[in-house]
Amino acid sequence: MLSRTADSLYWVSRYVERAEYLARILDATTRLTNLPSTYGGAGTEWQSAVSTAGCEDTFAQAYGEANERNVCDFLTFNPDNPSSIRNCLAQARSNARAVRTALTSEMWDALNGAWLELQRFEKKRMDREEFARFLDWVKNVSLVFDGSAYRTMLRDDGYWFSRLGVYLERADNTARILDVKYHVLLPANEQVGGSLDYFQWTTVLREVSALTAYHWVYREAVKPILIADLLILNRRMPRSLAACYESISRFLDHLGDAYGRQGPAQRQARKTLAGLSNTRIDDVFEHGLHEFIEEFITENNRLGNTIFEQYLQ
Amino acid sequence: MVAFDEMTGSGTELRPAYEALDRWLKEAPPETLALRRSQAELFFRRIGITFAVYGDAESTERLIPFDIIPRVLTKPEWTKLEAGLRQRVTALNMFLADVYGPKECLKAGIIPPDLVYRNACYQLEMVDFKVPHGIYCHIAGIDVVRVDADTFYVLEDNARTPSGVSYMMENREVMLRLFPELFATHRVAPVDNYPDQLLATLRSVAPRSAPSDPTICLLTPGQYNSAFYEHSFLADKLGVELVEGSDLLVKDDVVYMRTTQGPKRVDVIYRRIDDDFIDPLVFRSDSVLGVPGIIGAYKAGNVTLANAVGTGVADDKAVYSYMPEIVKFFTGEEPILKNVPTFRCREPEANAYVLDNLEKLVVKEVNGSGGYGMLVGPHANKAQIEAFRRKLKASPEGFIAQPTLALSTCPTFVASGVAPRHVDLRPYVLSGANGISCVPGGLTRVALKEGSLVVNSSQGGGTKDTWVIDA
After folding, report:
1. Quick one: CA torsion of A247, A253, A255, A257, rounded to 10 degrees?
2. For position B192, what pLDDT does the model report?
3. A269 in helix, strand or coil?
């Protein structure tokens, strides 16, 4: 297929995934700030949301204070923030429109419909209730889009490139959450029984829809090291770095088989996956959680570049 | 001036082709028509059949209004029209081969040489270059208007990159969905084989060195182009890649597309980018839409461009006025389709007449298109006429003028109910190495404003399904 078509499919998925991720951050942050002040702490939740979204610099340029109004505005509809939910959906639709015949009609419907509806939300003044509905709606758009891709796309290169977009973005998002929260997850900071920590930890889990999963997997109270284990190494957890790399590796192998050629992208993904498989969570903490995640994010970016060079340029 | 009506002729009789439709219109409650119209609109909106309007920042994607009452032509009417179209397009291709080759028609004094040589669309690059299979205008859109029961005039020949064929096909699709009962009572000739014919045409003109299964692609300026929907629609129906300039590269005079499996050779390009933008090395160097080196590959005979470069010289409005002579010269036959009588303002006598009669005439810029830069005398106010008079005096050679035609009208569903509105027709004529083909019908455009003669979509016109029926 045309490299540009593959590139657009890849980015459509990335942008939709990113929009969902932003909605999750906002949802979890709102919950956290809703806690009574005796449970609350430093009041830096909104700043932390901006950091998790990975746009501290652009935010600082646009606004002074990281409060609820500024951060929500910046991460949802702000046209000047290239990674606002609005711009993610706009970019997804624009990419989709350029290659719309490579999308199934269900996928196009999901995005085009979302774009039209978004403009209705944008014009409204939203109270908290309305805002919560909006965030649910964003998550739903991503679900419908993802589901329609899963159900309707031919299993060929177009599908694999679009899946690669999903999982590279998802791995990046999970890693970012961990990176921003690493100080919460560090055992040294642990105040046993401290309610603040408990709610901050569960926020991490909520951001990736993993609170229930955690209990199923560990059957224990929420502990930082186990959260890290779940989100980094546990392949049963669909957003974990290991699970993402299992998928990335599989889809790259499909491509390699279909094209009759393996390349640097396949080797690189396999190496990262093997690394994750051979690591125990204690090793991660010994090495330094922050360092581990930083290295992962760099590696994940590098794989994105390699895929681009091998297939998309 | 009473216009000929497609349904009622002079307004008193009911023409036989419209009998069943007339019955249906009388029986169908207005609510049903209104409901069907909104269903049609929903259909177009959902699948995104939109076009972009330049300079309209508010809504970059608009729907072209669709009218649910079809325009009907009988088989004998169509047969005659089609013969005229074939003859006209044959002549257009011969004319193009001639002006870029032996120039017999210039030597014979059929058309003043400066109209060709000084024409902005005359491409020196193409002089003495033999295009593959001798065909220049692979896809033509010939705008015709009807003035009475027997007479069609050609209003304009579109020989560069005519658009609108997707509307012809989608209009039919919507009609089939919304009015199955109408199709049960009429035998309507199908148009859905157009993509097959287009693909066969494009395959037939591949370079002789190309493999038997040539690689074809459709080159678009991208999603911000007004006709992008059509480009993606056609690529999809043809089963070929829709490429932008950046998807192509030229190496050693061979064109390749960038694919996920490496460069893939391209043999035929249906290009929907204008000459000026297609190759920055040859034409506008500031264009980022085109492909550097593509003209080199074309001239090396390694790729076919459809339409050929430089076809604009044949659809120029000044050249248009010579088409009857051109048809006769090249085919040796009397033209089947007439031209609208045209005053060439470059001729002093004609210009004097035009200046004296501006309020009666339609004056068009020779290089204008899309309904821009024209004066419709009877509908213009004094100031507009005087402004145009100054333009005309300053550069008479830039204009032609025509009497305002009584374009035929067709019943149309408007706010006030069913009322006659002026229409034109754009059939699409394909020329390949195996001959000419043309699906029956074409795109009927309708001026939705009462009395208006301007049917262009950029000026608020709408479209209708066009039926050729056995009758």
Report:
1. -150
2. 94
3. helix
DSSP SS3 for A76: helix
Please tell me which residue of chain B has the smallest CA distance to A258. Answer: B261
Q: Does B259 touch chain A (CB under 8 A)?
A: yes
Q: ipTM beyond 0.90?
A: no
In whole angstroms, give the CA distance from residue B373 to residue B395. Answer: 14
Answer yes or no: do A100 and B244 touch at CB < 8 A. no
B285 burial class (0-12, 13-18, 19+ CB within 10 angstroms)? exposed
In the predicted model, is pLDDT for residue A38 greater than 60?
A: no
Question: Which among A101, A257, A261 is the top mutation candidate for probing chain B, defined by the most B β-carbons within 10 Å of its own β-carbon?
Answer: A101
The pLDDT mean for chain B works out to 91
- The pLDDT tens digits of the residues spanning A267-278 come to 999 999 999 999
Verify whether the Cβ–Cβ distance B258 to A1 is below 8 Å. no
* Pairing outcome for strands B216-219 and B241-243: parallel
Kindly compute the dihedral angle of the four CA atoms of residues B445, B448, B452, B455, in this order, to the nearest 10 degrees: -20
pTM: 0.86
Q: Give the closest residue to A78 by CA, choosing from A93, A61, A92, A94.
A: A61
Sheet hosting strand B262-265, strand order edge to edge: B248-251, B254-259, B262-265
B258 φ, ψ (degrees, to nearest 5): -80, 115
Residues B386-432 pLDDT 10s: 998 998 999 898 899 999 888 999 999 988 889 999 999 999 999 99
